[in-house]
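Subject: complex prediction, re-run

Hi both,

The earlier run crashed halfway through, so I resubmitted it with identical inputs.
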Amino acid sequence: MEDRLATLRKIILSKNLDGILISSVPNVGVLSGFTGDSSMLVVTSDAQMLVTDFRFVEQAERECSDWTIVRRDTGFYKTLAGVLSDAGVRRLGFESAHLTHAQHERLSSAAAGVTLTPLLDTVERLRETKTDEEVAHIEAALRIQETALREVMTWVRPGMTEKRVASELDHRMRLNGAEASAFETIVAAGERASLPHAQPTERVISQGDALLIDWGARRFFFNSDLTRMLHFGSVSAEFRKVYEVVAEAQTRAMDVVRPGATFAEVDAAAREHIRRAGYGERFGHALGHGVGREVHESPVVGEGNEDRLAPGMVFTVEPGIYIPTWGGVRIEDMVLVADNGVRVLSDFEKNLDALVL
Amino acid sequence: MEDRLATLRKIILSKNLDGILISSVPNVGVLSGFTGDSSMLVVTSDAQMLVTDFRFVEQAERECSDWTIVRRDTGFYKTLAGVLSDAGVRRLGFESAHLTHAQHERLSSAAAGVTLTPLLDTVERLRETKTDEEVAHIEAALRIQETALREVMTWVRPGMTEKRVASELDHRMRLNGAEASAFETIVAAGERASLPHAQPTERVISQGDALLIDWGARRFFFNSDLTRMLHFGSVSAEFRKVYEVVAEAQTRAMDVVRPGATFAEVDAAAREHIRRAGYGERFGHALGHGVGREVHESPVVGEGNEDRLAPGMVFTVEPGIYIPTWGGVRIEDMVLVADNGVRVLSDFEKNLDALVL
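This time it finished cleanly. Structure:
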């Protein structure tokens, strides 16, 4: 966190600002360690303040010992204007994708002498690289979700609905220590797996169905995200072929992961393999996304992202092939960019025969 | 929904606008029936358009048959500007509490000839009064959460943690048909009940503890929200006294609910009783809040809200007494303003002796 604040201070200087206002809840959380909400940060070259209300003062003092905690008295923006004035801030950067138009108007009017400069994705970019502690939190979430699916695999059987399986998996994650599911669990049987973001329905699982499960856990406020295919009964030749194409595409993408490669190159390694196998039109989403305090965060691992991988980045690698009325296959794992290659953070079998129930 | 749109069109005229842009997901959902996201509505005096992307076109056409569905081609705001131009909109109202500063800038630049007028809470106010169908959805959610707690009451016992009870209750709601919990379930044992919004912890429930449970379900995208106190073993005289004060405060507030009363009057009926009993300083929050597509929505049932109740409004009545290091009592039910009084929508025992396990 020290490093991110130091980088933020360099950005303040380089943009000729006196300070930055951070209003996004996950950005506040990652920079300060605060786990509440309804609070904002002001960072200047030599000071750092967290502005909150009576509900959170005690918690903020406990969680953010390096920060000056300011309790709002009357209006939030009036208090904020006082903080800016005391800190000598006349040119303030703000998060334009997180401050609403109404909040911006209130701030402009309360801090009339301050020039407001919109900033986009500033803290989001700093969050792409995880600290060791954050990686440990993500790994804790992964262990929970993996254990939960292993438990569900001993229990699930044809005749159950997608919804019932999703409920059980969510419950098992909680029982294994998750604070919550990282997102609404996807369980899609048979032909329904052709929808990349299917919500679970009353569709009953039959013998012969494949089952796409996309699930994740939240632990210590950090998230994890995996996808596996289960299969009930004998596997058709076509399913096996599609599965092997997706699995090989994932392997090829992971082989490209190292510091200095671009996200577009990682995406292309998987996409090119799927295209050559004749399924190019059937892979309609990016290969992956960053995961951390938010389950979907920067970067996008996709075509057109020419940014380069750096050690400490954590993201998903999740190629898929989706064929309307037939079904779909997605395999998703999480990787960490290591100093000289890739470290796969997830640990769940993906050999198809091990996933046949 | 027809009525809300008609009212919205009157507001357009009265504010001398040509149309309104709706960008808040729940506002889009309540006005159009759409259950996806990443979409916005444009309403003019004689047209209504839903702008969405390829992922949601089919769903929007199915769910919103009275709306013109526009699929974005290149940029979202460019498509939106085309819609505004085709509809002859030169003066557009927008939701300033929901459009971010960055979105506002993009819209301003894409629709350069359009004057943008900020509006606050316009659709939120229209949502305060529920349709019969919405009340039925809320009642369905209530039946689910009530059944789930009754099941948990036959299972819960001293030695379990708050977290374990919360997980079980969430799971039972899903098994009984909830799409999800309406919010993060609160389970607070003993002295922890003095925190109005305690998150469940590893605190173990002991014989002699009271247990505050604040929970809710979501069904058909509508929410419910109740609080009950369970009690393990014999009840102290002090607990019984506090409980009876809160229960009587709730009854008095419900007795005031009828069309034409003000929200402040409803709040005062409960607050005055608690004050006279000597606990005035221990009831630090508003008496209630609207519940619907969002679990916390307009109106605030509290001091200072001089708006008047109208038939069809649905809100919580939840007085509480919180005593640091000792504990707390809150009793929360949901009511509907009927044509000539109150209809209590929730149906869960609150006689203290029936809640002792």
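Chain A touches chain B at residues 55, 94, 96-102, 104-105, 118, 120, 163-164, 167, 170-171, 174-175, 180, 184, 197 (CB under 8 Å).

- K.
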